[in-house]
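Predict structure. Input: B30.2/SPRY domain-containing protein, 340 residues.
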Amino acid sequence: MSEADDREGVAAKRSKTNDDSDNKEGLLRMIEELNARNEELESENRVLRGEGRHDDSRLPVVTKRTVDLSRVDPSLVTQVASFLCRSRELLGMALTCKAFGQRRPSGSSLVEEAARQLLVNHLRPSDFERNALPQYGNGTIAWLPILHELEKLRIPLKFSKLVGRGMEYSGGSESSVFSMLYSVYSTAIANYVMKRGVHYASFKLIGGDDTVVGVARPFRDFGFVNETEGFYMFDNGHFDGILAQRTAAWVGNVHCCQYQCSYGTANWTDFQGYKRGIHWEGSDKGDTVGLLVDLNEGSLSVYKNGRLLGMAKDGLAGEYCFFSAMCDYSGVSIERETPP
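Output follows.
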């Protein structure tokens, strides 16, 4: 090997050594930077956990902002609120912000005004519906409860409670029920509570020949019922359990009134005794029995296939709901209709 080759080899080794040294220094600097950054992150974590001392100047500054709703055009807020469409949504809005639910010097709150506009401009209740809505005196009108009641009034009638045994919904609808047992009465109670106004329900007889339709006081506790024995409101063995749930809404003594479809007989009870009423022609499978409840006049009238049979009872006052009781493989469907 020549002297020149030796010199080139030495130079190459020196160059490699310098490169290794530079790489090592670069790695050390990188490690130092990573350690420093890691320490910063650890410090921030300790601050977030509330451990030890920390420099408040490093924390973000949060400025509390408030909105002066008095500067917002009330008509704009009302217009936006009217798009909520449902009473529960408007109630949620009132509970979210005091300014929306608080009565204004000029009259009703923003939410109440939104409910009024929704009723007047969009829902537009009929005269029949208006008659069944809450009434207020002394110039005070609470529009939100009126809206809520109208929503319930427009929900289709259904049997929300089945009491007894062997009774089932029919055709996949809660508006239709069928009794699967012989000689054991069970009762289906409708979902809407009538408090005022005029109401009409039609009952289509879809099977059997032992169906009862009527109105009764609303109550929720059926713990006194032995469902294996069925349930029929005119069974005097149930009178004490029903009367135990009497409320101030049970005005007067006409607590339950019924029409026995197959026999054409109307009866009523104060849950202390059984009162016989009027007898008309009976109804058969395929017929439609209508019940007209007039809480303005305090009367219950019976229709058969759209034809008035007569008044079953007067003296009705307070709250009622529709019901149907049946046995012997009978069935019925219920529907809310405009009074004839």
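The helical segments are 3-49, 74-81, 87-96, 98-101, 110-123, 127-132, 143-153, 239-243.
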